[in-house]
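Sample intake sheet
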Amino acid sequence: MQFHEGLAAPAPARCVPCLKLFADTLYVDDGTKHGDEVKTAMIRLDFSYDGRRVRSRNPNNAGRDRAAEIQAVRVLEGLGALELESLDDCAVTPGAPIDYVLAVDGDASVLCGFAIHALPQLRAMGWDVFIDPEYPWQVVANEASMYVSAEAEPERADWFGLELGIEIEGQRVNLLPALLSLLDGAGDLSSLTRSSRRCIAIRVDEKRWLPVPPAQLKVLGKVLLEMYREGQGKLKVPAMRAPLIADLCDSLTDGSRPLRWIGDVAIRDQAYAMASGPCLATELPDGLRADLRPYQRDGIAWLQHLREHGVGGVLADDMGLGKTLQTIGHILLEKQHGRLDRPALIVTLTSLIGNWKREIEKFAPSLRVAIHHGPDRHAQVGSLATYDVVITNYPLVARDRETLAAIPLHMLVLDEAHAVKNHDAQAAEAIRTLDARHKVCLSGTPIENHLGELWSLFDFLNPGLLGHRDEFTVQFRQPIEDRGDKVRLDALRERVRPFILRRTKDAVAKDLPPKTLLINAVELTGAQRELYESIRVAAHADVRAQIKQRGLAGSTIAILDALLKLRQVCCDPRLVTSEAARDVQGSAKLQVLLDMVDTQLANGQRILIFSQFARMLGLISEGLLAKGIGHVTLTGSTPDRQKPIDAFQNGRSDVFLISLKAGGAGLNLTGADTVIHYDPWWNPAAQAQATDRAHRIGQTKPVFVHDLIVAGSVEERMLGLQKHKRALANAILEDNVSTSTSLTDRDVDDLLAPLRV
């Protein structure tokens, strides 16, 4: 071609890459006679020059911009396209117009990932992209709305059925079957969501897929796996677990796709209300004669929130933060608004009945209170329904179950609710027969020993929340207690979170004086040490024989008996009922205690002394009297419980001996500033409760807590097991990770090991 002088040569036509995406069969030679056939995505790449198309493989360079074409190829391969000629042992139908392959294994998630991430980039760069109408990995447009629906089950009003899907061209497609199939097939949610793929594809129909980011699928999958399944991909959820709906909706709200609610609005509102918690700006009850702290106002608001939404809960504040006062305020508000048209029944420990009556008379004198207790209690049964509050104890609920079950209740309050931690106990069974609209548990220690106690509480409060007992054991107890499974721990914590309110003194009562924990080690010497070792050797041999014959679980009685004898030797040989113990005079620990009391009293301190053994308190009393030290005592056999309490609080005595069982709850002894635990117990919560008889609201002086233990003995080793139990409780009630809590053969051998030198 010739050009006139002075005229520039015409610019070459612009190169426009043209991509055609379609499906075809890839033949893979896997070393067998027949090989393998995979249907996957193929690409044909052409280049357009002013409407003239050229195959990328065409060797003719005439009129082509090779630099632009090479750059286009680099872009396409950088986005994951695999050049067919570079694939070993792979072939396509001879003559098929194929230049590139996507995903040799036909992975739908990879193919959908290319569609949502690569194709928009290519179009933005000016590429001409064509997708075959029959292409089977088409991605649902972002404009398509997700929907969630929940409707009450016709057969069971306290359950609802759930549907999750997408709306396409006016048609709703339920995605639950595909989602559940994907989760089941993955085996492990973490392995699925750890994938390097940019999305996980969920099948919508024969041609279309919904791409879900792995992070979003992780949240969505966790929620779905916590729901109950039925056939055909259906999910059912008990009404008590409505917060899962809020979690489900939140997991779908990522800003890229609209979300619509098309189910029962009341279920949705209940879900979000329970998930988000109460509005803490609540009114205060008229006639409450107390200045409430901010956290106590929040506690009343929380109790009101539970009642409003028809669920029960555990007020699990630290001991000494005023659970009783908050409950009284809650009851008073119910009366103020006319909802207390039936009594509120308070079930508590026998020793605390009088305390509840005094507290109500002090803080809410407008409430009419009846006591259902004593030999004359049946005389007023007919009038109980006319009172605002009825107070009774756990044994009487079991004994008078038919009488009390016949009285409709507005509210049922279980004080020191860990008393019904044994689901099969008579009191627990009787309590579940009571007819109450609203249920509340009060316990600073809802988990004392194992997670089965938590299940028992919630089976009373909100049946269905934690499933059947066997299911709970498999899903939660065994993984958490035996293996320290953090995933299941997180799932359990989230499930109970809306129904437990836990505040610690460190967080909400910062004006409380400090509490100092001290361990005082005592050395055994002479005859007392020899007695310990002789009993230990014999007990260890007996326990090992029992374990060999019956296994660890069947040897509980033998283990506890051995530990009891060793603990008694540590306290005082006079507690041991054996011939060998009769000749042993003196107790090293008792002597240390008496010296401590002398010193503490000389410094002006006032002392609480706790022991598991009422007989030990008697021996301590004898030792104090021999030194001329006056004191008062409270045990389960004390006839007038209030008399020694008043004597101590009013300053008539500076030493108070208390059995752990009789004085571990319901006492306000802020007159004391020193607490001495004479002997440790398995359950750290029980000791903490006893300590907090002094370290509670109203205390103005620093509190010193002494644990007396025999060095190197079973007592010292018990402290290590206490830490395991404390970790288990904190893991659920607070944001901590639990460790294994089961007693093992190794634990038994350690507990029964020789005294350390």
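Comment: The longest helix spans residues 526-550. The mean pLDDT is 85.
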